[in-house]
Amino acid sequence: MSPEYSEGENSISCGPSSLQYALDLLRITSTQVELAKLAGYTETWGTTHQGMSTAAELKGAFPIKKSGLNLEILAAVTTLGGIAIVNYMARDKQGQYNPLEDGHYAIYRHHDNKNVILRCCNRGIHKEPITEFNEYWWDVTPDRQKIQNWALILFPDQKSKENSLNTILLDKRD
Known about the structure:
Elements (H helix, E strand, L loop, with lengths): L13 H12 L6 H8 L9 H10 L3 E5 L4 H9 L3 E7 L13 E9 L3 E6 L3 E6 H7 L1 E3 L5 E3 L2 E5 L2 H12 L5
Antiparallel strand pairs: 1-8, 2-3, 2-8, 3-4, 4-5, 6-7
Helix pairs in contact: 1-2, 2-3
């Protein structure tokens, strides 16, 4: 299935755009404008983690939002029917970024031993080297709190969510 996905200048922002794509994969119809309103999107900040989760739940998805994840957990929960939206620092071609402006949402598709494959509103499907992705898989909240390895994982039903919660809770990392 390949849902319609606004890229580049047609996109309001990466948050509502990623959320629309994820919901479309779950066969939940919405628009970026509607999701931006439900999520509390602002031009000065963008979309908060809580706003993303709230909008997804209001549209009928079953979300889990969690920090401290790893790629193996993302791979496991996506095989259980989840759609993962990650939040990381986007960098320019020189590797530069501004933590207060460059937080970016994208869909996690999968990873191999070298790359993380993402889908985002302004780059389409692209590869991030795992070492770089892990280094920049963080963002800051509006009150400047750093959040590491965060994802919003959406499920089509409560049972899938519960199965994935068990997978996350069984993760034995320190």
